[in-house]
Amino acid sequence: MGSAYASRVSRNPRPSVALLGPSITPGPPALAQAAAMLRKDPNIHCIGQINGLDIPRGSADVIVCAGEVGNIVIRLLEGVGEVAQHMARSIQEQSIRGRLAVQALSNDMASMASITDWKEYGGAPLLGYDRPIIATDPDARAEAIDRAIRLAVKTIRTDIIGAIRALS
User: Fold this and answer.
1) In the prediction, which pLDDT does 45 show?
2) pLDDT at position 128
């Protein structure tokens, strides 16, 4: 489902799919079973298992994991921009050189913050249903709701549901 979504919405013709798991052991049997199933499918470019460090590195286009793990990962990534801003403020307060360094990097830091800000995306699709469902944060403001609606429209126009059905 994630592969179909990435190929249609992100216009990625062959998205890489990975399973999120522990870095040392093969992980639980369900993880190995899922990897075997993904590798058998010729329509899916499964690159195997990745760990948490690989997520911000962009090692995979689609990451498969248990729902509760995915929610934790999303929340962690949402906090990255906030932590970077906090660190920048701290550096600015320490010296003039720190202030100049932060000013020189401010545009790049703003770009990084917008990449990790959920409000930039508005929401995320819940895949596997008969109709498009876009989940958004309960604290979403008008701008995020607008983006979530645009995502829903894009999901319909690119026929994500049909692409997912074609895989089964």
Assistant:
1) 94
2) 83
- The pLDDT score that the predictor gives to residue 111 is 67
DSSP letter (8 states) at residue 119: G
Query: Domain for residue 168, yes or no?
Result: no
Distance CA 96, CA 69 (A): 42
d(CA 82, CA 118): 12
Cα 9 to Cα 14: distance, rounded to the nearest angstrom? 12
Alpha-carbon gap, residue 70 to 33, rounded angstroms: 19
Same domain, 72 and 110: yes
Instruction: Give tens-digit pLDDT for 146-168.
Output: 989 998 998 899 898 998 888 76
Ranges in the chain, pLDDT < 70: 23-26, 108-119, 168
In this structure, the answer to whether residues 26 and 39 fall within a common structural domain is yes
β-bridge partners, 32: none
Residue-wise over 49-66: b if at least 16 C-beta within 10 A, else e? Answer: bbeeebbeeeebbbbbbe
The strand pair at 16-20 and 62-64 is best described as parallel
- For residue 140, give its domain range: 118-159
**Residues with Cβ < 8 Å from 25, sequence gap 6 or more?**
none
User: Is pTM beyond 0.90 here?
Assistant: no
